[in-house]
Design a protein that fits this description.
The chain is α/β, with parallel strands linked by helices. Helices cover about 35% and strands about 15% of the residues. It is built from seven helices and seven strands; from the N terminus they run ααβαβαβαβαβββα. It has a seven-stranded mixed beta sheet with strand order 1-3-2-4-5-7-6. β2, α4 and β3 form a beta-alpha-beta unit.
């Protein structure tokens, strides 16, 4: 083979190469598998980076809840679509930033979620088509809800607003029925967890020590079967609904790893 020319397309160069002997089918199959693995690797690396930016960096990439009703632009509607649930960060779970304001959503939580989400799919590659992921993050400001039941009302608004905006976006994006049925809330941040004796962080330990709240919203229209929180292995408790109501809000506190697996299983 000769060196690739400095000008011209790569396709042109490879078409110019001649091989004296036919390539055995076994070699062709191996090459195809290697190329497919490389394609998946690069695609998943790009997806991970996009998720990291949305979850753990500037607020422009996440929904910010500054009141009890919520606002949702057509651009932000994309962040709800193709997600089975929403992940609400209460102020109490946001560490202080350099200005002594609670605005931070630690990347370590996302990293633990991502690892558990991939593990929940076993040997099957998780669906990452069209921004599909476990959840979209919602960071709550001091002016937004501060107690556990209040995000439910906001989630209901976000769902209906998303339905209104649905015709304005791509046909490949949609609101999943599960999105309005269950949410995850992080109300406190466990500290000094997941670090091994060598100082390195074990994401499995983070997911097995950090707790979150999983709550049923009461709106399970479109689901094939009702959601059963008792499957999480902890006894659900009821909280008074925001704005009152005849029935309490069924909620359960579980480890982050269990919550991720529960949502992944529900989606299947």
């Amino acid at each position: 083979m000769h060196e690739a020319p400095d000008t011209g397309s790569n396709d042109e160069y490879w078409r110019s190469i001649t091989i004296e002997k036919p390539i055995p089918e076994s070699v062709r199959a191996m090459a195809q598998l290697d190329l497919e693995d490389l394609w998946h690797f690069e695609r998943e690396a790009e997806f991970r980076e996009n998720v990291r930016i949305a979850w753990a960096t500037v607020d422009e990439q996440k929904i910010i809840l500054e009141d009890f009703r919520g606002k949702l632009t057509p651009k932000q509607a994309y962040w709800l679509f193709n997600k089975p649930t929403a992940f609400y960060w209460l102020q109490s779970a946001q560490p202080l930033d350099a200005d002594r304001k609670r605005t931070r959503t630690p990347k370590i939580i996302l990293a633990a979620i991502y690892q558990e989400w991939v593990k929940a799919h076993g040997n099957v590659r998780p669906n990452i088509e069209f921004d599909h992921f476990l959840a979209n993050p919602v960071r709550i400001t001091p002016e937004g809800p501060q107690t556990v039941p209040e995000p439910i009302k906001v989630n209901d608004f976000a769902h209906h607003r998303g339905v209104d905006l649905r015709p304005m976006v791509s046909p490949y994006y949609s609101l999943l029925p599960l999105y309005r049925a269950v949410i995850i809330i992080i109300d406190r941040l466990e500290t000094n967890v997941g670090r091994d004796d060598d100082g390195l962080i074990d994401l499995g330990k983070v997911a097995s020590n950090q707790t979150v709240l999983v709550a049923r919203t009461g709106d399970e229209d479109g689901l094939s079967t009702p959601i059963c929180l008792s499957k999480l292995g902890a006894k659900p408790f009821r909280l008074e609904r925001f704005g009152g109501g005849s029935q309490g809000l069924e909620t359960v506190r579980v480890l982050l790893a269990a919550a991720v697996r529960f949502i992944a299983d529900l989606e299947r």
